[in-house]
Amino acid sequence: MTVVCVSIANEPPEGSASANGLRSDVVQAVQGQDADRLQNLFHKETVADDYAKSVLSRLKEAESSDTDLTLHEENQKQFLVLKGKSTDGAVCVPWLVTEEDGRWYLDGTPLLTAPSCNGR
């Protein structure tokens, strides 16, 4: 007699259903220090496998507090901006928000300019 056992993992889908949902999901991942969930919110082609873990580690190193995530629109593009305070001053990390096949993602490609971090 042969027995076959199949286990199906139930992983959350990548990205989010909307831009506002993406913001909420990032808030939960950052507050919960959930690197796996945060990683799944980035478009795979824009970040390395350990990008989210590095982001959370750097925020912890900076002793960031009062972090806030807001959607910001500029030049017909949406950005999700993480702002907070740190022991060295301010923390500001903007990510471009993209949509593909009905799912919303963060783009981890570094921005050449970060106008949303310049007080605008």
How many DSSP E strands? 4
Q: What is the C-alpha radius of gyration, as a whole number of Å? A: 16 Å
What CATH architecture do you see?
A: Roll
Which band does the percent of strand residues land in? Answer: 25-35%
Distance between the termini: 70 Å
User: Briefly, what CATH class?
Assistant: Alpha Beta
**Quaternary form:** single chain
Report on the biggest sheet: 4 strands, antiparallel
Helix-strand pattern, N to C?
A: HHHEEEE
* Lateral strand order in the biggest sheet: 1-2-3-4
**Number of contiguous helices:** 3
* Number of spatially distinct domains: 1
Shape: globular
What percentage of residues falls in helices of 4 or more residues? 10-25%
Topology-level CATH name = Nuclear Transport Factor 2, Chain: A
**CATH superfamily, please?**
NTF2-like, domain 1
Describe the structure.
By secondary structure, this protein is an alpha+beta fold. It has a single domain (19-107), classed as NTF2-like, domain 1 (Nuclear Transport Factor 2, Chain: A), CATH 3.10.450. Helices cover 24% and strands 31% of the residues. A 4-stranded antiparallel β-sheet has the order 1-2-3-4, covered by helices on one side.
